[in-house]
Amino acid sequence: MQRTTVKQLLVTEEGLRKMKEELEYLVTVKRKEVIDTIGAARAFGDLSENSEYDEAKNEQAKVEARIIELRSSLST
Fold first, then answer.
1. pTM for the model
2. 21 assigned to some structural domain
3. Which residue range(s) make up the domain with 24?
4. Domain annotation covers residue 27
5. 68 domain-assigned
6. Confidence of residue 2 (pLDDT cuts 50, 70, 90)
7. Residue-wise over 24-63: b if at least 16 C-beta within 10 A, else e?
8. Domains in the chain, number
9. Do 26 and 68 meet the contact criterion of CB atoms below 8 Å apart?
């Protein structure tokens, strides 16, 4: 039988509020900005040598990872 360990994160009310605000910002504002940047970078042409596109995709990965991290923290 496998035991599941639930990790708890203790935060202050202000810390919780800040986490929720950051998540809201990332989902509603930053995610769209990154998508727009990716679209603009695609317009430059060849994606294999397009540093703007690569940078935008890396930023997208960071934003999505942070969203996942915040959602996970807020659910515990």
1. 0.81
2. yes
3. 13-75
4. yes
5. yes
6. low
7. eebeeebeeebeebbeebeeeeeeeebeebeebbeebeeb
8. 1
9. no
